[in-house]
Amino acid sequence: MINPDLNIIKEFKGQFLVSPAELQAKLFKIRAFVTDWDGVFNNGAKDENGSSPFSEVDSMGTNMLRFNHYLRTGHTPVFCVITGEHNKAAYTFGKREHLNAVYYKVPRKKEALDHICHTHNLQPEEIAFFFDDVLDFSVAEQCGLRLMVGRAANPLLINYAKENRLADYITANDGSNMALREMAELLTGISRHYNETITERMHYTDTYKRFLALRNIPETAFYTSNNSQITLQAPQ
After folding, report:
1. Which of 29, 38, 42, 166 is the most exposed place for a label (fewest CB within 10 A)?
2. R_g of the chain computed on alpha carbons
3. What pLDDT sits at residue 115?
4. Which segments in the chain show pLDDT lower than 70?
5. Is the Cβ–Cβ distance between 147 and 167 less than 8 Å?
């Protein structure tokens, strides 16, 4: 009989490329969450300064996902953003949410993945990756849990991801319609701690306060790539 926590998958309209039980098993091995920026937090459009925004709906999703991980494991997860460009909105989000790191102007995102693994003593299979496009595939093929943003504009790319086993779930929503919240909601939902996550946050309990204090300890590090070497930079 299916685990009752997995019955929630019927609420999601995206494409499951592995069984719900396998998706849950993958989640339980995860110690870190890594996400692309453009096309995941937004629709990929940029302003004249090269920045692209984020939604508070997605932001709350990432916060609930991190709190859910804390409730399930007793530890705050590593959380990093990788963006190919110099993006001030990503800096703002990273600092405000006390992410472990923001990687920017990294043309080969696999370099950032290797750096994350080395810095935090992680194996790629312990990382969940949220992504949307071809430049992310080199990371997706390495990570233990892969969630891809669905987009009607690139059905062939999505088929490529399916055929080459580069994704475990493809969202029903695109980046302009809170795809990241959908992915966070799905993982929180199959964690066996969804109701606890929402109730504790709703009442701002001592448990949530302890999590928040731990979450806010890291000062976000900013890295970029120079001649294929990841280097620490001051945010610009």
Report:
1. 29
2. 17
3. 97
4. 1-4, 235-236
5. yes
- Alpha helices, H only, 121-205: 137-140, 155-163, 179-189, 194-202
**Are 128 and 187 within 8 A, CB to CB?**
yes
Please say whether the beta carbons of 6 and 53 come within 8 A: no
Q: Which amino acid is at 73?
A: T
Specify the DSSP class assigned to residue 49: T
Collapse the DSSP code of 131 into the 3-class scheme (helix H, G, I; strand E, B; otherwise coil) and give the result: strand
Distance between CA atoms of residues 124 and 196, nearest Å: 28
pLDDT of residue 100: 98
* Per-residue burial over 166-183, b = 16 or more CB atoms within 10 Å of its CB, e = otherwise: bbbbbbebbbeebbbbbb
Would you give the DSSP letter of residue 67?
H
- Domains, the chain, in order of start with CATH, read 4-218 (3.40.50.1000)
Which single residue is written with the structure tokens 């990382």? 127
